[in-house]
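Retro notes, item 3 of 5
We never archived the inputs for the adenosine-5'-diphosphate complex last cycle. Fixing that now. Sequence and ligand:
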Amino acid sequence: MPLRLGCIADDFTGGTDVAAALRRAGLRTALVFGVPDAATELPGDCDAAVVALKSRSTPADEAVADSLAAQKWLWSKGAAQIYFKYCSTFDSTARGNIGPVTDALLDAAGARTTLLCPASPPNGRTVYQGYLFVHDQLLSDSPLRDHPLNPMTDASLPRLTAAQTPHKVGLIDHDTVTRGTGAVRDALLAHEHDGVRHVIADALTDDDLAVLGAASLELPVVTGAAGLAEGLGRAYPTRTGTTHVPVPRTGPAAVLAGSCSARTLEQIARFYAAGLPTHHLDVLAAAAGRDIAAEALAWYDAREPGTPALIYASASPEELAAVQNQLGATAAADQVEQLLGTLAVRLVERGVRRLIVAGGETSGAVTTALGIRTVLVADEADPGVPWTHAVTASGDLALMLKSGNFGAPDLFTRALQETE
Ligand code: ADP
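Structure as it came back at the time:
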């Protein structure tokens, strides 16, 4: 069956998040890392494919070029509709990249109007009268106002969008959404008639997003966070085949952690507290010339086999500051990413069949090192954290790519319990 929905995500972990949402909606979903080329193939029969890009904070022209290439590839695989996924906090600046990318995707599709809604109610992101809330605060009063790359100092989606596009911006308010799919469709047509290109929609609940999804089925391009993607996915006719994706549930298991986020540090502590083997990578020792990859592998080979093992570079804020002061932040990150990529290859060669990777950048480094371009999305271990099925040179792999603050504190131990 040809692909039905093609999704373009503006960052790596956003790609995993939206892929999990589409699978929850009943679509068999593949995830593609980076801009695909003519040789990139989908892993089998899929309803949806998500291309995960790194286009959130790159210059707008690069983000546009990568997104258009992804759109073209998704079309070549049969996708009838394109969903552009960005962050539920609308991370962007007046220069973009949400507006320029959306306009380019619409131009290429010959589409006049799109629906835009970043609401993600389970995460406390709601839209009312066009204002984006983070739990009980306006976006502009939330910690996102101090974001290091994209500080969000305005919560008005119409204003934020208008700053990023030369086209007209409109709103479908919550009152209309509560009147159902027909009312939203009529409002969309009225906006299109008035020459409005970007139609922002209010949504407070997943039911609102289901209404918006059903009303957007005919739009060539729809944009939002994972919530509206799920609403849209649920509006697609149920697939005839299975959505079940089998992944190895037994066999050697490992965690590689390069995320220094608070939640990852908690997950590592829980793994350690459960009495499971853990090994810390001493980044400063590596800089001083020690072969810490070889040391980690010797530790892995010497540990009692049969239990999951965790190898981590993750550091507390103080440790991280010390390493970054000595090596420089970028050089240190590059070194750690390369190290974890090498370790992933060596572990899989040693027979690891279940691998959890903690950290967005770290996940990128590990998939690249393993030569993995596409995976199929399987069951979620926690919201937004699915297992995936990957094929490597050494065999099939159950791979979980976890962004920094995702997953419950016991994720590592729970996810690696063997199940048949
Ligand atoms: P998250 O999803 O939590 O943001 P990432 O993997 O995206 O995690 O980012 C963490 C970054 O920190 C990576 O670039 C990683 O290489 C780097 N890093 C991890 N451990 C260390 C360390 N001990 N010293 C310096 N940099 C580190």
